[in-house]
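agent> fetching stored inputs for the threonylcarbamoyladenylate docking request
agent> found them:
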Amino acid sequence: MTKQRKGLPLKTLHISQDASHSSEVLCRAADILRRGGLVVFPTETVYGLGGDATSAASSQKIYAAKGRPSDNPLIIHIAHPEDAARYAYVCPTYERLAKAFMPGPLTVILPKRDIVPPETTGGLDSVAVRCPSHPVARALIEACGVAIAAPSANRSGKPSPTCAAHVADDMDGLVDMIIDGGECDIGLESTIVRIDGEDAVTLLRPGAITYDALCMVVSHVTIASAVLEKLAENERPLSPGMKYRHYAPDAPLVLLDGEREDVLAFLCEEQKSKQCAVLCYDEEVSSLESAMLYPVGRADDIAAQAKVLFRHLRDADRASPDVIYAHLPPREGLGLALYNRMIRAAAFAVRRIP
Ligand code: TXA
Ligand code: MG
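agent> prediction call returned; pasting tokens
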């Protein structure tokens, strides 16, 4: 289906999920990419806004479509872990990480080769490399024959899209094609690490490849302070993305910290006096008013909560509440990634109950 939004430059071709695996569609998408066009494709984390990683012009188009500052570098997506050597200088630590976690939701920062233009890396000498596991993503990169540079397919300042409808909300008329791959499995962006030398990495962005999983493969894993805390004034970020304002809903998001029953009692009281949206645990649904209620999964199911976070934040924000409440997630395992995204969306607003 092709639609053209008023005032927007492109007629976007929408590919249904049923057709997303067809070789005809993938050839057409690869052709668009090789000619310098933009294709949104599904990955196991979030949707990516793809262009030819070796083309300066394509990367500039990505920044324009996203409305993103061009010094915030892009991740390049490869079909096989060993393809990294074509675009970057690999090392034994990369090879160990690749063997353990690729294809999958891990991005590794490596020194870049000349084939990757500075427009793709925001002027940096390093490049972020990721080999996604989603079959449509891999087939597309393979068909394209070149790495695909892709940030998350949201307009800058919106949450990353985890389904094709959210992509269409942000990108219709700004890209050549959107491939629907259904709901993304993980729902949070990939883990990003920088290699610091032999057997040492710094975790720049937590994701589904957890700190503990990294520690099984690399002896020294440092968590960058900006993962958990606000970047201090004048502090130079290790990753340019750290310095940008992340998605923040129009209504203030407040994270509640305390005993489960105290937090639930607080929510019940707040619902009586305020127009509040609540991201609650499934177990709490029957105790709360149903208006603007967004169940995120069971309290102990962090994977379920990660998967729906961005969707619920988009929906809750659209309902125009006075305030959005959610539980403060734990920082262990995948919880660290959830915490990292939520604390930023909340602009670090945590309320201790009682
Ligand atoms: O799961 C993901 O990683 C998704 C899917 C589409 O693959 N992509 C994604 O891209 O989240 P994006 O552009 O939204 O986030 C990339 C992050 C940015 O914060 C950027 O600053 C950082 O990666 N980054 C990219 N290249 C870098 C580099 N050379 N050095 C340090 N940080 C880098
Ligand atoms: Mg992003």
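agent> quick read of the result: Residues 151-152, 160 surround magnesium ion (ligand 2) (CB under 6 Å).
agent> awaiting further instructions
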